[in-house]
Design goal:
heterodimer, A: mainly alpha, 30 helices, B: mainly beta, Immunoglobulin-like, Neuraminidase, 44% strand
Chain lengths: 549, 485
């Protein structure tokens, strides 16, 4: 259920093995925890290693909690020998009596049996929303509880030594983990005062309710954790993160599989899905498919989509051949999200495409200062793209796609971005399909039909179904296009289906919700359903910016 | 700990090994060269054939030649040489020995001998690198803004001061200390760290101008544009611009269009603003103010406004207007360099502290040279009114230049290393107005620039450390006066 790689992809902190980064971490007390956590978090990129760390941390928290609970609530042999050091061997025959005493203690503290599982289990369960800063918390708790366990080892020392040890551990923890040292203080105080609250706890736990709970402690804890997971697990969030990761890795089929399970989408995910459809050659067919979260975003139509696009938008722009807008987007992402590996990788690629090898090398050098990236470079993830789907442009294709003419301005409107690309090279299939998709999405049938006049130059055979539906619709509804001659490229069955749809649609009462739903069910995969029945039109514009550096 | 403990002994051994790997060795331990290479070794940064100040930090470099061992000797006419024998290509000079060598040899050349040992061909010696040590020192601190290549948003923007005689860099003001704010256009009066002005933009605390005058920090509620101090410290000339960022689809991505701009004079003592009509002419755009060192002239860039569609036709003249500070009287406006003469746009005028030279940017068009790869530094002899492009230019952008207080050194931002990130470069300006080959700001780790993804913006030379703490400046920014009820 919890995939450490996804956790890494979603929330990995910035970490580089260089002086500047480490200085930034060590700038204030307590930042060592951030530094350690950031360093450890990098290994979450390797799923099994992340799982290993989480399990080890949970085990340590379990053990520490168990040790602390036992030492507070159970009889302790060391209490009988306050001046004995921990390394002093027991007197002859004493070992057996210590074991027996410990067993008696354990029997007396049944009320806390299995309680040590609770913190670790809840912490593990808390990862279910993929947004929990699990590494610093686990690490902070491990260290603080470790400190408390260590402190208990000094119980046999004289009071002065004990207090000295306590102060030393506290100072060390305060420097290491800052706020988490309160856990150490709290636990130690609780243990020191256990003589006061233990009788009360024993009285409470002798009540019938607790007697029942005591017998079924493991089951109760299991149910509590399961309940916690059920309440907090965010399946949609996991899907969104996974779609993002799969799109980064070029695993398009997986993106589409996951998209089918999404209930609501984000601009970045919608762009990833559109891009996956294109790379699978399905965009002209499935752009309006009801099995995918609608509406799909090809390129941002609103300021919110522009700002929410992030690297997904950058990838689309790069695939299209719009290197400068991609550079713009990548630098915005870098500034807003920090030095994430994907962003740095993307910038290295952009500067390579811009024939700036020195700048690209700077980003690659930066990446090499991250241990996770070095591992990823040594173990690349196979992608659909690398297996050659025929739609992913390589560097050579970029050279033929890239613009030679400057179009200065501030707008990121789809037609502003796409039209020049087609003017530069009509073979840019992605620009063609995206511009067609934009026209169809914004119901600009006249422009779509105009663009389709150049479809012969792109080797589509036959013309994709959605395009045929748009052509047939334009032919049917546009007064300027209504002639008796059939629209070239539109198969007869498409024209017939349109006639059937229009007949049904004309009989539909505007206020008839049931009829509308029935029509949507029957015709939902057609462009006509989107054109007539969907209210998800897209026409908002993106405002120009007036900021400057 | 017991010194015989194995862990203790292992730690000491490791420490000794580490220290030994990069420590300078006596010269007599050097290799015997067997093979001479008739070219200089490739080093980064390029510190070959340059003029250096006698007070600059060690010019550490990495040798970009393959080798299993490296032996570097730095020598000059007077005093001991510095020899480094190492297995790594990273060469770091000991600060004390470096300082002594430069100080004892000011005015002389110094030589860098590089020898490498290849597994196959044995030791080889490259042609000696010769650099010159100037007698004139450079101002001891460099103040700059560190930013990533920015577009519309910013998060990490800070002004830092760097000790040029060492490697210490400390923050002057970090934008994150007042809620992801922006700080820009830090300006000093005649290279003095005691008098500073800096613009601030913050969502939470407004857009104040912060003025530091001999330790006193003052918050002016409204930010200014490009700034320049009158030498008296009583006036600040500033520009009022209506700038917009726009983008290109090929080549350099970002560009700036200035739709409206005027100059204004802020009186620090009285808090009043004057808008003299000849520098705030609605029929002209005036920007980049710069007071001459005596305060008798205000230099600036000016042009006729054009619509955005003609942005590539916008070319600025260099102008100046006379000013008499005791009487506060303005004189005549004169054209120092007409765009019609050059066919280019002249911006960012900076007069040398001795008043002899005017250093400015010439670019194809526009008022914002930092986004113009065509931007070059040019030097005009103000007496003869003759100008030439400086020898320290590259095919990439040079801009944001600043003079040292003795008029012999300049610092400027150049994108020559990678075409994206601006790095501060220093060049010696001879009395006859010629520039030496520039060198990049030295770093403790010579590979520093290989992976540093921030740009050095507006490098300014100052004669000492800025004493006002970041906390004091932040407090002034946060001290927003209560609005009247």
């Amino acid at each position: 259920m919890i995939n450490p790689s996804l956790q890494y992809h979603h929330q990995a902190p910035v970490f580089f093995l260089d002086r500047v980064t480490l200085q930034g971490f060590f700038g204030q007390p307590g930042s060592l925890l951030s530094c350690l956590a950031a360093g450890i978090s990098q290994f979450y990129v390797i799923g099994w290693m992340g799982a290993l760390f989480t399990t080890a941390a949970a085990w340590w928290i379990c053990r520490s909690t168990q040790a602390l609970l036992r030492s507070s609530a159970c009889a302790r042999v060391v209490d009988q020998h306050p001046l004995r050091g921990p390394e002093e061997p027991p007197a002859a025959g004493e070992s057996e009596s210590r074991k027996a005493s410990s067993r008696r203690g354990s029997e007396r503290c049944l009320e806390i049996q299995s309680a040590h599982l609770l913190p670790a289990m809840l912490l593990l369960a808390a990862q279910s929303d993929y947004a929990f800063p699990i590494v610093p918390v686990l690490l902070g708790l491990c260290l603080s509880l470790g400190g408390a366990v260590l402190d208990r080892q000094f119980r046999s020392f004289r009071l002065g030594w004990r207090w000295s040890a306590f102060a030393l551990i506290l100072i060390l923890l305060a420097w290491l983990v800052q706020g988490f040292c309160l856990v150490f203080v709290g636990v130690t105080l609780a243990l020191e005062t256990s003589r006061l609250w233990r009788p009360w706890l024993q009285r409470v736990t002798r009540r019938p309710l607790f007697q029942g709970l005591r017998r079924h402690a493991v089951i109760c804890i299991g149910l509590a954790v399961a309940g916690y997971v059920a309440m907090t697990f965010d399946r949609q969030q996991k899907l969104l993160i996974e779609i993002d990761l799969m799109a980064r890795q070029g695993r398009w089929a997986r993106v589409i599989d996951l998209a089918g399970e999404l209930h609501k989408t984000t601009p970045a995910a919608a762009m990833d899905i559109s891009r996956a459809l294109f790379h699978l050659g399905r965009l002209p067919v499935d752009q309006f498919s009801p099995s995918l979260p609608q509406p799909l975003v090809l390129l941002p139509l609103t300021d919110a989509q522009l700002q929410g696009g992030g690297l997904a938008l950058v990838d689309v722009l790069l695939d299209l051949g719009q290197v400068n807008p991609a550079e713009h987007g990548a630098y915005e992402t870098l500034e807003l999200q920090g030095e994430r590996l994907e962003t740095l990788k993307c910038l290295a690629r952009i500067h390579e495409l811009k024939h700036q090898p020195a700048a690209a090398q700077i980003y690659r050098n930066r990446l090499h200062k991250n241990p996770a990236f070095r591992w990823l470079m040594a173990h690349p993830v196979p992608s659909d793209a690398s297996s050659g789907d025929g739609n992913t442009p390589g560097t050579a294709a970029y050279e033929s796609f890239r613009l030679q003419k400057d179009y200065p301005g501030t707008l990121m409107q789809p037609d502003f971005l796409l039209f020049p690309l087609l003017q530069a090279n009509i073979k840019n299939r992605m620009a063609f399909e995206y511009l067609m998709g934009f026209y169809l999405q914004t119901r600009q049938l006249d422009r779509a039909t105009q663009l389709l006049q150049r479809i012969d130059e792109l080797d589509y055979s036959p013309i994709p179904r959605t395009y045929q539906e748009a052509l047939a619709l334009f032919h049917a509804v546009s007064p300027s296009a209504q002639t008796n001659a059939p629209e070239p490229g539109v198969l007869p069955n498409v024209s017939k289906r349109l006639a059937d749809f229009l007949a049904e649609y004309q009989q539909l009462n505007p206020g008839d919700g049931t009829g509308r739903r029935r029509l949507e069910q029957e015709w939902g995969d057609t462009y006509w359903a989107y054109y007539f029945l969907s209210d998800r039109g897209a026409s908002a514009s993106i405002s120009a910016t007036d900021n400057y550096q | 700990m017991n010194p015989d403990h194995p862990i203790f002994r292992a730690a000491i051994s490791c420490l000794l090994a580490l220290v030994g790997a990069a420590s300078p060795a006596p010269i007599d331990q050097g290799p015997v060269p067997r093979h001479k290479v008739t070219r200089a070794a490739r080093i980064f940064p390029d510190y070959a054939g340059i003029v250096v100040p006698p007070n600059i930090a060690p010019l550490n470099f990495s040798v970009r030649e393959s080798g299993a061992e490296y032996h570097i000797t730095v020598r000059s006419l007077v005093g001991d040489s510095i020899a480094i024998h190492t297995r790594h290509d990273t060469i770091r000079f000991p600060a004390g020995a470096w300082r002594q060598l430069l100080k004892a040899n000011a005015g002389n050349d110094y030589y860098v001998d590089i020898e490498t040992r290849d597994a196959d061909s044995g030791w080889q010696r490259f042609t000696t690198i010769t650099n010159h040590i100037a007698t004139e020192p450079i101002d001891s601190r460099l103040v700059y803004r560190l930013i990533r290549p920015l577009y519309n948003y910013f998060r990490e923007v800070g002004i830092y001061q760097r000790d040029l005689e060492g490697f210490d860099e400390i923050p002057v003001l970090d934008g994150r200390s007042f809620g992801d704010g922006c700080v820009n256009c830090h300006t000093f009066n005649r290279n003095s760290p005691a008098t500073m002005a800096v613009n601030v933009r913050s969502r939470d605390y407004g857009r104040p101008l912060i003025i530091v005058n001999n330790g006193q920090v003052q918050r002016i509620p409204h930010t200014a544009g490009y700034l320049s101090w009158h030498p008296s410290g009583e006036l600040l000339a500033y520009s009022r611009n209506k700038l917009s960022l726009f983008f290109h689809t090929v080549g350099e991505n970002r560009d700036v269009f200035d739709a409206e701009s005027d100059l204004a004079i802020y009186d620090v003592g009285t808090g009043t603003v004057a808008l003299p009509e000849f520098i705030a002419d609605p029929a002209r755009l005036e920007t980049w103010p710069e007071w001459g060192p005596a305060g008798r002239f205000l230099y600036y860039s000016s042009c006729s406004p054009r619509p955005f569609a003609e942005f590539s036709e916008v070319r600025y003249d260099l102008m100046r207007v006379a000013y008499d500070h005791p009487t506060r009287a303005w004189g005549d406006v004169e054209t120092v360099l007409a765009a019609a003469e050059t066919g280019l746009s002249a911006t960012q005028p900076k007069v040398s502290p001795d008043g002899r030279y005017l250093l400015f940017c010439l670019s194809d068009y526009g008022s914002f040279p930092v986004y113009q790869p065509s931007s070059d530094l040019c030097l005009m002899d103000l007496a003869a009114r003759e100008w030439h492009r400086l020898e320290c230019n590259s095919d990439q952008c040079e801009s944001w230049h600043c003079w040292s207080s003795n008029s012999r050194w300049i610092v400027f931002s150049s994108k020559r290393l990678d075409h994206v990130f601006a790095r501060p470069h220093f060049s010696f300006i001879s009395p006859s107005g010629h520039a030496s080959k520039p060198f990049v700001l030295p770093q403790r780790d010579p590979a520093f620039y290989d992976s540093f993804i921030k740009t050095y913006n507006v490098p300014q030379l100052v004669t000492g450390a800025i004493r006002v703490s970041p906390e004091t400046l932040t407090e002034a920014i946060r001290n927003v006066p209560a609005s009247p009820q």
